[in-house]
Amino acid sequence: MKLVCSLVAVSSSIALAAPSANVVDSCIQAQAQGNVKATEVPTREILQEDGYKPGYTAEYVEFDGEDVGFALSKKGGALLLNGKLWPTKRAVILPGAENVAKLQVRIELANWLMLDEGNNKYLCVVDNFDGLGRSGSFQKYRYAYILKINNKKGLFFAVGKVR
Length: 163
What we know:
The chain is mainly beta. It has one domain (20-161). It has 2 helices and 11 strands; from the N terminus they run H-H-E-E-E-E-E-E-E-E-E-E-E. The longest helix has 14 residues, at 2-15. It is globular and about 40 Å long. Residues 1-15 have low confidence and may be disordered.
């Protein structure tokens, strides 16, 4: 029994391997860093759909033939990618973001990027914190959701300072 529990713990940690420092930094800075390639997801034409999935209202854009956006329900928010929802409350918290509440994304205010690093692809959603985060010295800090979208998928939450 002990061996089975250990294997489960190891396999789940492998499945949720955190993105590299370059990916996190590219997301927080909203531009490519190191060996990461970044492509902006334009948010000029936002679609809204009640009942996108049962109980969810979604705001999204169409990018490369996929729906990309954010959905809300009574249970909370979720990133939306190609018809699949990724609840933000289940995001793995990366170091430095432990004491920060996960936030609702405002699609029209956030920066949306597709990041490529080697064989790994990510959806990055980064924004300033509401209220004080949009003005004053707090403008330098952003939160980010980073969704690994190929291989071992997973959603991560990070906080960082803009340089």
